[in-house]
Amino acid sequence: MPFQITTQPFGPLPTGTEPLTEYILEHTESGEFITVLPAFGGILRRLVLRKGHNLFPLIQAPESPQALLTDESYASAILYPFPSRIRHGIYHFEGEDYALKMNESKRDNAMHGFVHGREFSVVSQEITPTQAELVVQYNYTGDTAGYPFPFALTVIYKLIQANLLPNGSSSTNDRMCALQVSYSALNTGTTRCPAAFGWHPYFTLSDEAVDVMSLSLPTRKPVILDEQMLPQGWLASEQAGVIQLRDEQLDTAFAIEPTSDPANPEPFAETVLTSLNTGVQLIVGQKTGENKLNYLVCYTPARRDSIAIEPLTANVDAFNNGDGLTILNPGETLSGTIWVRLE
Length: 343
What we know:
3% of the residues lie in helices and 50% in strands. By secondary structure, it is mainly β. The longest helix has 6 residues, at 65-70.
């Protein structure tokens, strides 16, 4: 069987805890692999996929335990129970006011939820002839200030045969692999709760600068953001098209519209990052539709060596403006799927 799952020590955190264990999901014949750190936010730390005869490292994430603790970019972070920002960390929900810890001091906002860096446990791992799967979970008891709503957040990482992705594409070769990330957030409390999910990977193509890349975006409506990066309205819808990234600075949120595909009745959207040097395309897909991933943030950091392509279920400050916000009854779940492949 070409797929396998192994583990290796990643090293101890400076806090004196036991060494982190890194899980490696690998296709032994193609050399493609992903690695996951369950004990540190359940993050995906490495993603390497093949195009033709070449293997491409596709994400940037901390290279050491020390770097994990000092990283302020939220590289590969799972964002829950809210992505993006909440103005001053304050929101009103069903007759009560709540105040979250502000962790973006320069703008006085709460940002990106609070599961990043927390310890996920490994629920299961499975190997089949077409995939390797790792399931991790974080159980929250409601003990973080400003969010007294318990939940169980499950994330499923798959290194999967690319032609089995949920977009129904027939153009991918069954000898190529892809990444599939699925999530399910279960309200384990006794009251309703506000919920939104996001993922924060930084993509690259073999460490090329973003200035030699282009970005193809789906049809979308840009969000107008103020100096605090909070929504102030909407711009007119923009048709699907290509942006040349040379000298382009992005820190932009969009509400996206799905791509129709007769072969796949479930709506989805894909964002395409293309190397202008090699023509290789990295495709980030997300399921859209009711309570799914109908928002997107694209961000080019100042170092110009990567681009964050962030699928989200809700707009910035959704706990206040309600754009894309899901309200979960006890026992209900918020779930969806993201994928990454090469063409």
